[in-house]
């Protein structure tokens, strides 16, 4: 009885065994999922911590994340009885072929074929540096179950693709519950990976901001130190000439000034020299302040380059003679004029020449002017002691001064070269340096032959103001005088001028007024282009390289096709009777050089 009564209990235990085993298996699988995800999250957190504590690494932090993901995926999936290989392919922006950049490094069986047939009909294998087409990745993503997954955009538009390679036999033997578990694990892995990459971007952005802030603070500290040094140097520099001025003035007052005494004349020379030195120091400081505040005004003009250079050399002649240095000047014969600020150009050249003389004890100092690639090159060279590469890097820093053994004193503010460089840049040019220790130095100012930068802005501003005045007169007056500028937007002007600076000046100004200006630089080009134009006015230079401008005017007047076109002569001829000579040749009007742009605009308007 007891035996028969126990049968139902035994049968019940036997019937419950499959359900219990199933529950245990589910718990195992859930434990595997949570354990694998926890391990992945811990490793990714380690990567993020490493990225946040190391400002510069040999290996980018995103690379650590990718390698961690493929390794842990490989380990977890092979531990779940699914033999596979894991990799990540990176797809560059605008590309259609990705490259396998990361593969799992755990020991496993030989890498199986990917279970996808590529668009070319071949099976793909997962190897490092292997190329996989985007359409193949997309095809693998659409498979059931998928073999590839698109990750979030990583950095600079690069897309990551997670790839898992398995064998066909393993896939078929794999039960559905494990497929579902695997899918859940991969989905979570991709989610964690995307979160880690997003945090990496934030960390790197924060680090870059910190680095920029640190660099900015360092620059502020350096600037503060330089300014303190500058104030100390400048205070000393200003006190030196002031002491001389005050001291020698006191002597003159105490002794009573007697012009015939040589000693008193010497006092006056010292006072004058000290005053000029003091003025130079103050001007350098003011110039740099104006440049830094973008308030430096450019007074552009057409400069006679040879005359200006010879005048500059005359100003330094006495200083060079005091050190027994020979001065030389070389100017290419084709160089005539330049549109620039004459005062600032003279200042730039004087800064360089005084420096050359200051740091040269024996030999020569020279100025050479050449043209190259539409730039005028003013080169000041010397045979002095030269500048070391380390000191060359400091030359153009504001408030920096280089102690040089060629000079008995460290006079100056250290601003001369800085001001020169920035003045050249305002003109649209630059300053170059070549130097070697004990072999001298050469500084070259490069200025564009065609007006650019502040010079161009000044020309255009002048033209704009003239145009506004003309339009106001036109709007509010019942009639215009002959000298008012009336603009015809369709007016064609032919300019025959061999001087590039003058030609560019007139072309820019008239173009701003609304004229279409065609420039040629000789008679041959004029005759060649005339049949193609219907100019309203011809502007012609009297002195051309291949013809006399007045003879050209006579030839034009003899040609029925051109005899009625108004012609304005522009020339440097400004002596009595020159105007009459030009008018007798057949021109309608005459303007002398340097060109008065407003007068030129009035003339062109009058005849067009």
* Low-confidence parts: 1-7, 168-174, 476-489
Proportion of beta-strand residues: 15-25%
In total, how many beta strands? 21
Rg over alpha carbons: 42 Å
Strand order of the largest sheet: 5-2-1-7-6
Mean pLDDT across the residues is: 78
Essential attributes:
about 600 residues, alpha/beta, five-stranded mixed β-sheet, 21 strands, disordered N terminus
Fold topology:
Layout: H1 2-53, H2 61-79, E1 84-91, E2 97-103, E3 113-117, E4 123-125, E5 131-133, H3 134-142, E6 148-153, E7 159-166, H4 168-173, H5 176-255, H6 262-292, E8 301-304, H7 305-322, E9 326-331, E10 337-340, H8 342-358, E11 364-372, E12 375-382, H9 389-392, H10 416-426, E13 430-435, E14 441-448, H11 453-476, E15 492-496, H12 500-513, E16 516-520, H13 523-529, E17 537-541, E18 543-544, E19 547-548, H14 549-558, E20 567-571, H15 578-585, E21 589-592, H16 597-607
Parallel strand pairs: 9-11, 15-16, 15-17, 17-20, 20-21
Antiparallel strand pairs: 1-2, 1-7, 2-5, 3-4, 6-7, 8-10, 11-12, 12-14, 13-14, 18-19
Helix pairs in contact: 1-2, 1-5, 2-5, 5-6, 6-10, 7-8, 8-10, 11-12
């Amino acid at each position: 009885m007891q035996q028969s009564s126990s049968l139902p209990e035994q049968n019940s235990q036997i019937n419950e065994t499959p359900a219990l085993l199933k529950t245990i298996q589910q718990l195992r699988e859930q434990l595997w999922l949570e354990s694998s995800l926890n391990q992945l999250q811990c490793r990714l957190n380690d990567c993020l911590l490493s990225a946040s504590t190391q400002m510069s690494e040999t290996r980018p932090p995103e690379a650590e994340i990718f390698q961690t993901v493929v390794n842990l995926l490989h380990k977890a999936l092979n531990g779940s009885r699914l033999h596979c290989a894991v990799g990540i392919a990176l797809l560059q922006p605008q590309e259609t072929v990705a490259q396998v950049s990361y593969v799992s490094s755990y020991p496993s069986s030989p890498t199986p074929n990917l279970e996808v047939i590529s668009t070319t009909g071949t099976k793909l294998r997962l190897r490092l540096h292997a190329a996989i087409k985007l359409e193949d990745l997309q095809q693998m993503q659409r498979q059931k179950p998928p073999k590839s997954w698109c990750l979030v955009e990583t950095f600079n538009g690069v897309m990551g693709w997670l790839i898992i390679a398995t064998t066909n036999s393993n896939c078929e033997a794999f039960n559905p519950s494990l497929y579902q578990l695997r899918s859940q694990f991969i989905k979570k892995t991709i989610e964690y990976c995307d979160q880690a990459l997003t945090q990496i971007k934030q960390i790197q952005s924060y680090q870059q901001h910190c680095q920029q802030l640190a660099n900015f603070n360092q620059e502020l500290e350096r600037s503060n130190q330089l300014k303190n040094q500058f104030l100390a140097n400048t205070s000393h520099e200003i006190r030196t000439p002031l002491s001389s001025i005050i001291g020698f003035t006191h002597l003159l007052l105490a002794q009573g000034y007697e012009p015939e005494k040589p000693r008193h004349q010497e006092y006056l020379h010292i006072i004058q020299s000290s005053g000029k030195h003091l003025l130079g120091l103050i001007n350098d400081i003011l110039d740099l302040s104006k440049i830094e505040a973008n308030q430096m005004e450019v007074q552009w003009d057409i400069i006679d380059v040879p005359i200006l250079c010879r005048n500059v050399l005359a100003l330094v002649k006495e200083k060079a003679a005091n050190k027994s240095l020979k001065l030389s000047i070389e100017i290419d014969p084709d160089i005539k004029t330049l549109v620039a600020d004459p005062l600032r150009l003279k200042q730039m050249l004087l800064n360089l020449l005084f420096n050359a003389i200051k740091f040269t004890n024996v030999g020569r100092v020279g100025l050479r002017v050449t043209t190259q690639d539409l730039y005028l090159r003013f080169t000041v060279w010397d045979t002095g002691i030269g500048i070391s590469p380390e000191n060359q890097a400091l030359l153009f820093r504001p408030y920096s001064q280089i102690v040089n053994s060629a000079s008995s004193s460290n006079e100056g503010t250290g601003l001369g070269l800085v001001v020169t460089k920035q003045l050249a840049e305002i003109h649209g040019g630059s300053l170059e340096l070549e130097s070697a220790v004990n072999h001298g130095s050469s500084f070259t100012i490069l200025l564009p032959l065609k007006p650019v930068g502040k010079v161009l802005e000044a020309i255009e501003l002048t033209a704009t103001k003239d145009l506004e005045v003309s339009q106001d007169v036109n709007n509010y007056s019942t009639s215009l005088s002959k000298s008012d500028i009336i603009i015809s937007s369709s007016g064609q002007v032919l300019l025959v001028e061999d001087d590039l600076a003058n030609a560019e000046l007139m072309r820019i100004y008239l173009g701003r007024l609304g004229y279409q200006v065609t420039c040629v630089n000789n008679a041959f080009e004029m005759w060649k282009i005339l049949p193609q134009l219907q100019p309203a006015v011809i502007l012609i230079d009297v002195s051309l390289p291949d013809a006399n401008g007045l003879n050209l005017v006579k030839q034009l007047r003899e040609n029925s096709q051109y005899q009625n076109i108004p012609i304005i002569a522009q020339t440097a001829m400004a002596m009595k009777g020159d105007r009459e000579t030009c008018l007798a040749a057949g021109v309608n009007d005459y303007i002398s050089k340097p060109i008065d742009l407003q007068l030129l605009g009035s003339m062109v308007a009058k005849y067009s």
